[in-house]
Write a structure and sequence with these properties.
Heat Shock Protein 90, 7-stranded mixed β-sheet, 5-stranded mixed β-sheet, about 20% strand, 19 strands, rod-shaped, alpha+beta, disordered N terminus
Length: about 650
């Protein structure tokens, strides 16, 4: 066992090392380096920037100068119409500003072509570069009715004619708590920017494909085994995570309903965290407090309902509450998983390792969405980095499933080995019973013969000593009893091999022939045997010798306790089973004995009490049942049922035999 655990640890370390290499490789795919431009002021200096290398520059939204509640055109600035004083964008409360004009001046080297990338524009925007409209996302207006929101990553290519390039941006947002907040921009050589965008989109598509593949894989596991609810929940978890980078698909869609898309995006957000907690709860039964987890599910459900029912300006304002609660829940899960490491279970360790990247990246995303900067930096050029953490959890859960499967295989092999050992012991016991019984029969026959010979000699010599006569009688009875026990032991040994000698049998022919063979013995006792078999009875699958033995045992008992009366044998079909009934008009059985008549050693006539017990074992070995009804002084009815064989199997067996 200790050696197996050491192999497990080595395998875990190797697998996690490979998974970590693949994960880091995906997050660090060769892509342009991103440098951050900080500071304040309308003019952003790039004269000393290296636009010839693989570098892009991220300019925070705080560098915009803003004119709230107005849309100025470039001509307004050129003609001196604008008299308002702009304010730094970061000083405005955009929850109260729903449309605005923003201005930024870039000081760039002349003679190069640049790309200006704005990621994840969610609402409506119009951009002017040096007085010319470069592009538009949606339709920015001055009220909700004239504004059309849109979701799009936008790349604008331009070649400046002068050192100073002026950007004028119109924003309009009547559907979100952020209001007309200006977006950050990423600028670089146009080829570098395009490479930056392509790599980001490629990573997003790889994440989506990987997550969808994992979702269908675990859904398939659940389809094969409906008891694996954990696999179903994990499949849902992977599917929801695959939708997080799905906004990349919006670039290829011309028409879509923004309200529906936006709400689905929020529902996915709530579903991801709820499904993740549910997965951990199912995987580690009893680890998480059910009251806490159920409260969180209800909490997420309330947020989902708000998203469906309320206006977007309402449910977007409450998102911070969901983030705070989710961080506390994730912290609670991490603490519980940390404490569970003391159990030294592989599954607990893998869950802990798999969940930690998700927690760190979730905090990273929340901080970025709330405050505009990334704790861990930009990863793969993605707006949401949590799916990267989910990739690692998929690796860990796959490894956990592999170990679970390996442990199941080891358990099956162990049980199989134990079954083989038990089967060998059973065969040895059976052989021992048969050999012992066979060896005892011969000396018993010799002893019985000598006792009977002595009894005849004493009788012949007219010896009248009653004590000697009684002793000889008792000796003869005991020898006969031991002989019957030996015969029963042989029957029990043969019963162990019942399945090996089974075949398809004609029920009517089998039982009628057995009963008719016993007719002379019954009639010698002064009784009358009546046999009835229903026509066209199906076949049974069984051991002919064993089934005949059951019927003869019942006929022997009936004949032994019946004087000058009828003994009936009826063979009929009842609910796809062959019913064999043996009824007599004999002495009957008392209530007390009737309750234990099928137990070993129970007899009302001084016999071994093994006959009916053996009959019961034989019938049950054939998949049937046996029962008895009796009234003292009014006779006994014993009925046993044997399942009818499948006709197709019986025909196939018959053809095989003929062939």
């Amino acid at each position: 066992m200790r050696e197996k655990k050491s192999h497990n640890i080595i395998a875990i370390v190797i697998f996690l090392a490979l998974a970590l290499v693949l994960w880091i490789g995906l997050t660090l795919l060769p892509q342009p380096r991103r440098e951050y431009v900080l500071g304040h002021g309308e003019v952003v200096e790039f004269l000393d920037a290296d636009f010839g290398g693989e570098v892009v520059y991220f300019v925070f939204s705080s560098r915009w100068m803003s004119f709230p509640d107005v849309h100025f055109m470039p001509a307004d600035f050129a003609d001196g119409v604008v008299e308002a004083v702009p304010v730094p964008a970061h000083t405005l409360d955009y929850s109260r500003v729903q449309f605005a004009t923003h201005k930024m001046t870039l000081r760039l080297p002349v003679g190069q072509t640049y790309g200006l990338f704005i990621s994840g524009v969610d609402y409506a925007m119009r951009l002017f570069i040096d007085g010319r409209q470069a592009g538009m996302v949606g339709v920015p207006g001055t009220c909700r009715e004239t504004t059309t929101p849109r979701v799009l990553d936008s790349n604008f290519i331009f070649t400046p004619e002068y050192d100073y390039t002026t950007l004028i941006l119109h924003t309009a947002n009547f559907v979100h708590r952020f209001g007309a907040n200006p977006p950050p921009i990423t600028i670089g050589h146009y080829q570098t920017i395009q490479s930056y965008i392509n790599i980001g989109n490629t990573i997003a598509m790889l994440i989506m494909g990987y997550m969808l593949a994992a979702a269908f894989f675990h859904l398939g596991i659940f389809a094969l085994n409906r008891k694996r609810i954990t696999s179903l929940v994990f499949s849902a978890c992977c599917f929801l995570f695959s939708l997080m980078p799905a906004r990349v698909l919006m670039q290829f869609l011309t028409y879509y309903n923004w309200q529906i898309f936006f709400r689905v995006e929020y529902l996915v957000h709530y579903g991801v965290f709820a499904a993740l907690v549910l997965f951990l709860e199912k995987m580690h039964q009893g680890l998480l407090n059910k009251t806490i987890t159920r409260s969180y599910y209800i909490f997420a459900g309330v947020y989902a309902l708000m998203t469906i029912v309320f206006d977007s300006t309402v449910f977007t304002r409450t998102l911070i509450g969901f983030w705070v609660v989710s961080i506390f829940i994730m912290g609670y899960v991490v603490i519980k998983l940390t404490l569970s490491l003391r159990q030294r279970r592989i599954q607990n360790a893998l869950s802990f390792v798999g969940i930690m990247p998700i927690v760190f990246l979730a905090v990273n995303d929340m901080v970025f969405r709330r405050y505009g900067f990334e704790l861990l930096g930009n990863i793969g050029g993605q707006d949401f980095t949590v799916p990267f953490g989910m990739l690692f959890l998929v690796f860990c859960y796959t490894l956990a499933l592999s170990f679970e499967y390996a442990e199941s295989e080891w358990a099956v092999k162990s049980v199989s080995a134990e079954n083989d050992a038990l089967e060998r012991l059973s065969r040895m016991k059976t052989q021992y019973l048969a050999d012992m019984s066979h060896e005892i029969k011969t000396p018993l026959a010799v002893i019985l013969g000598d006792v009977q010979r002595v009894a005849r000699l004493i009788k012949k010599d007219n010896t009248t000593d009653e004590r000697i006569a009684k002793s000889l009688t008792r000796a003869e009875e005991e020898v006969m009893r031991i002989s019957r026990l030996t015969k029963s032991a042989i029957s029990m040994a043969a019963l162990q091999e019942t399945r090996e000698k089974m075949s398809h049998l004609d029920a009517a022919q089998l039982f009628v022939a057995a009963a008719e063979g016993y007719r002379s013995i019954i009639e010698k006792q002064g009784n009358i045997l009546r046999v009835y078999a229903q026509p066209n009875l199906p076949k049974v699958f069984g051991n002919a010798d064993q089934l005949i033995g059951v019927l003869l045992n019942l006929l022997t008992n009936a004949n032994k306790h019946t004087k000058k009366s009828d003994i009936a044998v009826n063979i009929e079909l009842r609910d796809n089973t062959i019913e064999v009934m043996v009824a007599d008009g004999g002495e009957g059985i008392g209530i007390k004995l009737l309750e234990t008549v099928f137990e070993r050693g129970m007899s009302g006539s001084g016999s071994t009490g093994m006959g009916l017990a053996i009959c019961k074992d034989i019938v049950r070995a054939h998949g049937g049942e046996i029962g008895i009804e009796s009234t003292l002084g009014m006779g006994t009815v014993v009925t046993f049922l044997i399942p009818a064989a499948d006709e197709r199997e019986a025909d196939s067996d018959e053809k095989h035999t003929i062939d």
